[in-house]
Amino acid sequence: xxxxxxxxxxxxxxxxxxxxxxxxxxxxxxxxxxxxxxxxxxxxxxxxxxxxxxxxxxxxxxxxxxxxxxxxxxxxxxxxxxxxxxxxxxxxxxxxxxxxxxxxxxxxxxxxxxxxxxxxxxxxxxxxxxxxxxxxxxxxxxxxxxxxxxxxxxxxxxxxxxxxxxxxxxxxxxxxxxxxxxxxxxxxxxxxxxxxxxxxxxxxxxxxxxxxxxxxxxxxxxxxxxxxxxxxxxxxxxxxxxxxxxxxxxxxxxxxxxxxxxxxxxxxxxxxxxxxxxxxxxxxxxxxxxxxxxxxxxxxxxxxxxxxxxxxxxxxxxx
Length: 319
Description:
Blueprint: H1 8-26, H2 36-51, H3 59-83, H4 87-111, H5 113-122, H6 130-162, H7 169-181, H8 188-216, H9 219-239, H10 246-257, H11 262-273, H12 281-287, H13 294-300, H14 302-317
Helix pairs in contact: 1-2, 1-4, 2-5, 3-4, 3-6, 4-6, 4-7, 6-8, 7-8, 8-10, 9-10, 11-13, 12-14, 13-14
InterPro entries: Cullin, Cullin_N, Cullin_repeat-like_dom_sf
Family: Belongs to the cullin family.
Protein name: Cullin N-terminal domain-containing protein
């Protein structure tokens, strides 16, 4: 790799032209892809500017410009395009901007990769790597500003699906994946900015449904509805929620549909069955294949409840 002395203005002007080309490609404008020669010239320009002797070693300036490139692009292009939209259109734009941002990071970090190998390696304690810099820009400048609106729109769609409407599950998965990915290996963003609110929304939804169903439905119908709700919530996890949410979601639904109404459900079951002999292993298996009625059985018949519950669970495991 031949060395060529490069002044700052000359070098940055050439790099900026490459960045402008990249932005146009990412935005889907008419622009040919980078060929290998263009890529190598950009890389070599940055490499040479980083190995020059002081005061012409421009490593720090290039590192700052790398970050500023993302900040300028987000301010001028990304954030306005997300903020101006609402509802499902906003979610679609949010996903598109995130995917484009990751493309920007991938290409720019290649052009500037000598900074990662040399400058950042020597200053790691105070200088995050290029990939982290790019992600932090999106997290601080886009995600922090719009995640509340994004969450609201997602919860609206989940609510519509719970009421039987068809929704774009693939879109929801892409959005929720951003809550996970933006944590950069940690689940804090997903748990604090989405999951906690989703569980509150779930509580409100099912406590409201329970207050209606407990008066309208027979014990059998109520328990079958509860079981179906559990099945659908597990289905949501498998299609677009993070797997870590399943246990919390299931416990939430069981609590608000069954646990808080256990006394009324026991009374309803007895008034409909007419005698305690109704409580047979066959009936337990039928209504409790997913052990949703276990709480009721354990509350009602402490002496024999645990045996019946175990039999029901054994039967469910063998299905």
